[in-house]
Design brief:
Blueprint (H helix, E strand, L loop, with lengths): L5 H22 L4 H27 L1
Keywords: Membrane, Transmembrane, Transmembrane helix
Length: 59
Amino acid sequence: MLIFKPKQLAWAMLLLLGLGYFSAMSHLEINYFLKSLIVFMPIQVGAIVYVTYLRWGER
């Protein structure tokens, strides 16, 4: 029986989320400029969460 560590589960969840996001973005038929803006939204949200987590940990 396989025993997964929490870090491995987190990577697996992120992989599935990324694959789903890539698939959804590939099938959108919108303007390329808008698509490029939508593509970078998760990166920006991730950066905000990361910076907030770092600042919160300093207190």
